[in-house]
Amino acid sequence: MSESKINELKSDIDELNLLLKQAKRKRVQDLLSVEVRKLETEWISLRDSAKSSTTPMDVSPIPTTSSVQEKRYQIKLNGYGWDQSDKYIKVFVTLKNVHSLPKEQVYCKLTDKSMELIVENLDNKDYILVINKLLEPINVGESHWKQKTDMVVIFLAKQNPMSKWSHMTEIERKFEDQKSNRFKNDDLDKKDPQDSIMSLMKNMYETGDDEMKRMISKAWYEGQQKKKDSTIDL
Prior knowledge:
- By secondary structure, the protein is an alpha+beta fold.
- It has five helices and eight strands, in the order H-H-E-E-E-E-E-E-E-E-H-H-H.
- The chain has three domains: 51 residues, DNA Excision Repair, Uvrb, Chain A (Irregular); 86 residues, Immunoglobulin-like (Sandwich), CATH 2.60.40.790; 50 residues, no CATH class.
- Keywords: Acetylation, Cytoplasm, Nucleus, Phosphoprotein, Ubl conjugation pathway.
């Protein structure tokens, strides 16, 4: 495969990651994450193939079978998609040809607040996906995973089956809350103080008794008269 094809794939990945950062809808984010993972897997495979094709031939003596040890690369995964039902949080991880591996080479390490997916010796590479600080606790005993065509699906059983997760992790929710609070504060800073006063007086007028309404009406009338007098003086 030519160097231009590898560079083209890298550019596609960069552009998809940029779109992922700009995406606001969860389903769109999940679709983009899955596509990025597919292209990253293809890019890594092509890059490694290109490197091996340019490596000079090793003319050292061939070791015996017992002494041969294949060096495997470990690749940390970042992209995944997720969805939920009443009972499970479902995590989708795309890996080409993962369905061809024996079950003992694809497994998870789970705690009540974390998950770790491990895929061993897939095209001479080990893949690992770690998700810490899950939004809510999970039931480890009832959780499981399945290999499907080019994909692993992890079923994380909720401890509270009817709960709805807004985010996958505590960190994601905390980040979203901070961002929302920042936008609210910006809006308050931009709001005209006079508008706030008028809104307060309107609410007091609508909820107050007759005496309160007379006082507010009098204050508003006198304020209008002062404006007229100031205009005349000018």
